[in-house]
Amino acid sequence: MKNLLIIALSLITVLISNYLGATVPPFSILFTPVIIGCISCAILIYSTWRLTWRVLIVVGIIILNDLLIRLYAGGNHDGEGNEWISIFMLIGAVVAFIFAVAAVINNTSKTKAPEKIIAVLLFPFILYPYQSYFSSFGMASINNNYHNINASKSNGVFIASINFPDSELVYANDTFILQSGWIERQTTTHYLTLVKKTLPTNNYNYIIPIKGKFDQYGWNDKIFIQINQRDMNGASPIQDVLIFHVDTAVKDVTIYFSVADSNGLNIIKTVEVNK
Question: Is 161 within 8 Å of 181 (Cβ atoms)?
């Protein structure tokens, strides 16, 4: 009866914590080490199940708490938020591991040494694969473009090639050459269920390599580019690989190359993108 009460209270604690995490964020994330520590202490020290069963139950509760945080209490977290969830989960796992070692040391039953070793090793052997696979669980992220046209084709996202009859851009002493590029379907990875899904979006990615004089980071801040607009909003310095996305419903794509002056941006070249 005592064992079942401990499990029931542990599960109720996890559910209440994640309810508070969903309503008063980031409660469940910040208090994960405390909650996991209390639950681990109760199960590993005060329950009377076999040692390996106690460890498996604790590991299961750690995983349950983490999944609930990622899917519900954590909200739509970004990469940084996802890392914080992983860090606090790791701290909680370390606290639980310490209690597991204490339970092994203080074990006065006839538990044999191999079972004690297995009980301790269950933590890394279960939690490491779990963390490796579920580290981005609950997120939906836009995939980066493929770095070459062959990869784009082999992954089934290639739409069309891009060629430029007038590919030369000259400004002052700098010359830039627009090289052949390609258009591909933008995709997102949805990890809102136990299986990752790659789904298409309503955008096309345009990838256009540019040959010219760039800094060590691949940028040149003398010339700016705008896509389908002439004002300064959205303008960015030219780079050695021009990457932008456009809604699939947009038929005509125009790239404006500009330089900055006292009146804003002065367009020096206009390029129509032809598929």
Answer: yes
Residue ranges making up the domain that contains 103: 2-138
Strand partners, 233: none
User: DSSP secondary-structure letter at 69?
Assistant: I
Helix (H, G, I), strand (E, B) or coil at 55: helix
- Same domain for 124 and 161, yes or no, is no
Total domain count, the chain: 2
Burial environment of residue 4 by CB neighbours within 10 A (0 to 12, 13 to 18, 19 or more)? exposed
Query: Does residue 114 sit in the same domain as residue 151?
Result: no
Question: What is the model's pTM?
Answer: 0.65
pLDDT per residue, tens digit, the chain (275 aa), is 889 999 999 999 999 999 998 888 888 899 999 999 999 999 998 988 889 999 999 999 999 999 999 888 765 566 777 888 889 999 999 999 999 998 888 876 777 888 888 988 999 999 999 988 888 787 777 877 777 899 899 988 999 999 998 889 998 888 999 999 999 999 988 777 777 788 888 999 999 999 999 988 888 888 999 998 877 677 889 999 999 999 988 888 999 999 887 777 888 899 988 66
The residues pairing with 263 across neighbouring beta strands, listed in sequence order, are none
Phi and psi for 132 in degrees, rounded to 5?
-65, -40
For the four alpha carbons of 67, 84, 123 and 56, in that order, the dihedral sign comes to negative
